[in-house]
Write a structure and sequence with these properties.
Blueprint lengths: L2 H4 L5 H12 L5 E5 L6 H15 L3 E6 L7 H13 L4 H9 L3 E3 L3 E4 L2 E4 L3 E2 L3 H22 L2 E6 L8 H16 L4 E7 L2 H9 L12 E3 L5 H15 L5 H10 L4 H13 L5 H15 L2 H6 L3 H12 L8 H11 L6 H10 L4 E3 L5 E3 L2 H8 L4
Parallel strand pairs: 1-8, 1-9, 2-7, 7-8
Antiparallel strand pairs: 3-6, 4-5, 10-11
Helix pairs in contact: 2-3, 4-6, 6-7, 9-10, 11-12, 14-17
């Protein structure tokens, strides 16, 4: 039973806000940030897509995180699917006009699995050129039919490699060329990596994604909605206050919360405490929290603990320095050591526009906060 699909909490008002913003003509694209499991993808597929289609758009959805293949291939496939359905490997290789040498590995694309890693015999520049031309050609064909809304999920992948940046550059050219008939929504789960794509002056999509805006978190109404579904399905009552408290502990992320609800549906004797404990244990195991923690030195571990408990911490203040010296037991610790430690923690925590620190993985933050001293 997939409650994430069956019990989707629709947000039509939010979809209207995004569409109205894009339709107003002041911007041609926007970028949405939220941590993983915050419900971005479900919102794009189940709320924004139908609303845009009803408004006359052709909607193209490309997920750059699920596939281990090139983002360029993922984007081309998404554009192709919007035009017509074809054999996956045949359509990709035929359009790119380059021979495939080997198929090996595994990836998830467009809702079905592709076993294979495309290895091309041509040089990289030729592949990038073919991809850029194909992206533009497909987009032009779509825009001639109707206005297009392009949804690019987990756009931070465009900054991972030089090849991915080449795809981003090609995408920027296409967006500019077809801006009269094209609107784009980017999403991302890493604020730091999104900055590498959109915000830095040398970023491949600098200014193209407009301002990076926070995706509104689900509130108590979501928990009440799930409680109603739970009662209708099981004839049992879900304690809303307890459920809300656990939802807040999970940083208001619907996916792990619903994992706990599924556990209660399938195991009638489990309390919400049992279910959520199981969820936390599963997240810690699958995301290797212990391994990430073990790789940190004493200063980094102490800073991570402090930031997990107090996101508004001032790590470079004299008060924090004194506290670190006492905890670590190193009187010679200096601000420069803290600066170096914070720099090495950039993949774990990042300063937000609200002048507080946010964890790239909120499940890891909760795991750290519950560690014994």
């Amino acid at each position: 039973m997939n409650l994430i699909q069956i019990w989707h909490y629709h947000r039509p008002a939010l979809a209207k806000i995004y569409l109205d913003t894009l339709n107003a003509g002041l911007v041609t694209s926007t970028t949405i940030f939220a941590p993983r499991r915050a419900g971005k993808t479900s919102f794009l597929r189940k709320d924004l897509t139908p609303a845009a289609q009803a408004a006359g758009y052709i909607v193209v959805y490309a997920d750059l995180w699920q596939t281990k293949l090139s983002p360029g291939v993922s984007l081309i496939r998404a554009l192709e699917q919007a035009l017509e359905h074809k054999s996956r490997l045949q359509s990709i290789t035929a359009k790119l006009k380059v021979p495939v040498k080997k198929v090996k590995a595994s990836a998830e694309m467009a809702g079905s699995r592709l076993e294979g890693e495309l290895e091309f015999s041509s040089d990289d520049k030729k592949i990038q050129t073919e991809m850029a031309l194909q992206i533009d050609s497909l987009m032009e064909a779509l825009c001639q039919k109707k206005p297009v809304l392009l949804l690019i999920d987990e756009a931070q992948e465009l900054a991972k490699t030089r090849e991915n940046e080449a795809v981003a550059t090609a995408l920027r050219t296409t967006i500019t060329k077809h801006q009269a008939r094209l609107r784009v929504v980017f999403t991302g789960s890493s604020r730091m990596q999104l900055a590498h794509v959109f915000s830095n002056s040398d970023a491949p999509l600098y200014s193209t994604g407009a301002a990076i805006v926070d995706f509104p978190l689900l509130d108590r109404y979501f928990v009440e909605y799930i409680a109603e579904k739970f009662k209708a399905s099981t004839k049992r009552t879900l304690a809303i206050e307890s459920a809300w408290q656990f939802f807040v502990k999970l940083k208001q992320q619907p996916e792990p919360f619903l994992m706990g609800i599924v556990d209660m549906v399938l195991n009638p004797l489990h309390s919400i405490n049992d279910a959520m404990a199981a969820v936390e244990e599963k997240l810690a195991h699958t995301e290797n929290h212990a391994g990430v923690w073990a790789a940190l030195d004493a200063t980094q571990k102490t800073l991570v603990r402090m930031l997990a408990k107090d996101p508004a911490l001032k790590p470079f203040s004299q008060a924090t320095l004194a506290q670190l010296r006492k905890i670590i037991g190193v009187d010679a610790l200096k601000i420069t050591h803290i600066q170096r430690a914070m720099s090495n923690l950039e993949s774990i925590v990042i300063k937000s526009p609200r002048d507080t620190y946010e964890f790239e993985n909120t499940a890891f933050a909760h795991w750290v906060a519950t560690l014994s001293e």
